[in-house]
Amino acid sequence: MNRRELLKQIALVTGAVVVGGDFFITGCKQTGKSEAGFTPSTIGLLDEVGETIIPATTTPGAKAAKIGEFMKVMVTDCYTEKQEVAFTNGLVSLEEACETMHGKRFLECDATERKAFLLSLEKEAKEFNQKRDEDDKLKKENHQQANDKLAWKDQTEFEGNPSHYYTMMKQLTLLGFFSSETGMTETLRYAAVPGRYDGAVPYTKGEKAWA
Amino acid sequence: MNLNIDAQEQNTYDAIVIGSGISGGWAAKELTEKGLKVLMLERGRNIEHIKDYTTATKEAWEFPHRGGRTQQMINDYPVLKRDYPLNETVLDLWVKDKECPYTEVKRFDWFRGYHVGGRSLTWGRQSYRFNKWDFEANAREGIAVDWPIRYEDMAPWYSYAEKFAGIQGSKEGLDVLPDGDFMPAMELNCAEKEVKKRMEAHYKGKRHLMIGRSANLTQPHNNRTNCQYRNRCWRGCPFGGYFSTQSATLPAAMKTGNLTLRPFSIVTQILYDKDKKKATGVQILDAETNQTYEFKSKIVFLCASALNSTWVLMNSATDVWADGLGSSSGELGHNVMDHHFRVGAGGTVEGFSDKYEYGRRPTGIYIPRFRNVYDDKRDYLRGFGYQGGAGRGRVSEVAEMMIGAELKEALSVPKDDWSFSITAFGEMLPYHENKIALDKNVKDKWGLPVLSFDVEIKENEKKMRIDMMNDAKEMLEASGLKDVNTYDRGYAVGMGIHEMGTARMGRDPKTSVLNKHNQVWDAPNIFVTDGACMTSASCVNPSLTYMAMTARAADYAVNELKKQNL
User: Fold this and answer.
1) Which residues of chain B from 332 to 391 reach within 8 Å of chain A, CB to CB?
2) Which of B85, B287, B490, B556 has the fewest CB atoms below 10 angstroms from its CB?
3) A 146-205 residues with CB < 8 A to B
4) Do the chains contact at A209 and B394, CB–CB below 8 Å?
5) What is the pLDDT of residues B133-149, one digit of tens each?
6) pTM of the model
7) Angle between helices A111-148 and A40-53 (to 10 degrees)
8) ipTM of the prediction
9) Nearest CA distance, B230 vs chain A (angstrom)
10) Distance between the two ends of chain A, CA-based, in angstroms?
11) Which residues contact B496 (CB under 8 A, 6 or more apart)?
């Protein structure tokens, strides 16, 4: 599975275009910006959020794939300003929402509580993204109409509102995990140098997919 | 490697080759093997085979952004960002856009590789012969001018190029896509075999599906190892498993002891003697030191990539012709072509859930042209072929509200069914008004004028695109695929990275820039053998034709030199 297919898989699973995916071409972030939103403790929090989405089972999970650190790098380097702000604000919102639901911080919750909480965010994110899509639809059409009147050089890429922060976290967890060494070689199967091609290998249901 | 650093000491050669990509590499190989002392000039840096393929053995997890693009990259590469070439895995094999700007009257996506090997390192490796109709169509339909050569002129040189480059493919016995001298073909997978069977049965042998013919070795060849099925060709292959300048033509040329390679050498003009009506050599700008040098030679092979070869001509002999060498025809810079694509269809192949793939095959399938051939007639000219393939992706549809071990499990296995998709590549006609010109108001990093683009697709291509989509859907449905979806992702000229034309071959110096041996009419010791020479585009990938064309012209050039005709 190549990167493009992985992005497609993640988009389908999360119901939203992958933030920072290959074909997002707007560049509007100033370079050399800070990593202010990411402290060791937020990375620890993101590790646990990732681990709740993709936990260790018979194979290691997202935490073993250093998912918190990966999210920091991706959000800092690949997200637009708007997306980064949404993500870092999301770190605060996440703790507040967890407090509301369980009366304690995410890291203080046990595995069952964490999962129940993220499922509640999943529901919230779905509604949030749907509403965003509806709002953006009209804006996008207006943007397109305005573009059509301009010379191609003056046309601009439409940048919609960011997805829900949880959607971003889930997308980064899936992207980071399934392209990590443990994800590719332990949860999936990987042959660095296959040496030959066989287009009709017997397959028994349940066998791991090739990375 | 024989690098010519001390340029003052030796500045005279038998031949100068400008450019080191697919065409330049072939020119250097052929001319040195025939005994000529050759100087190959490359505007960019050197890249040594294997040693300089910095990402060839990197795994996905070794890239900090896992092969994606950062905001910094998007800012730095305003052209490259328009499509897939901008990514973390091969960033150093594309030109730095901001150092080498160009002007777009209309949008033109120009994806360039300025380094030894050029785009022979990053090419898609699809290798097809033009057919006999491709060389006749302009004359038959009254489009542009007639090619001065026919398929028969090219056939032996196609064979010659295929045998050296190593092209894998299957022999099909079709007029529309002539067979070549192939290495054993890579295998179709089980889903592709089934689609082939059903499609060929449905269309009663009038449409065909075969393995994509590609410059990937299936047997060891000339000290190169056969393909290891990593499917990472574009990062450079440490096994030499695919054809590139570095893996194939450059070592052959070096072996003769007759080649001097000079990187960082931007050719600013071909020096022209107006009394003898011949080139005497070239002037270069050293890209690192900004020093100017001159080199002399009996012949020049101009292989700087289609549009840059024309740029060199436009900047040469301007004291004789204001618009440059070869402009006396009024066609220099005109008739820009590419292949238009990004339209097709995909669907699901059921019935192979007990089969899977091993290895990553670096080519797909090919469906050769069937429109406007034999008795088929459409409301547009020419046609298109399809590239694509079948694969079994991982599960991407999961129940709502699923996270945790369940989700991990669900996403770690292949889908039940295989998916199959095809993308059409269509021929673009040569239009005189589709042109490039010098824009002297804009300068590159070295103060040189840049190219301005005024190119678009027209009605013929737009009509063709409708068929390109509808035919894909119809064929896949007729072949029993389920959930067939069509798409048109939009196309800007240049995205095909198959730039052609601007110094076309022809039969008449009044309407063409080059003659039937790729010689500039106004300077017969200059040979242009890259995409610039193309009189029409066919719908098949052009690189194999450049290889054959270059070998053919080199053979002619050396014979003429021996006869003292040049």
Assistant:
1) 353-361
2) B490
3) 152-153, 170, 174-176, 178-181, 184, 187-188, 191-205
4) yes
5) 999 999 999 999 999 99
6) 0.95
7) 100
8) 0.93
9) 6
10) 5
11) B338, B339, B340, B341, B425
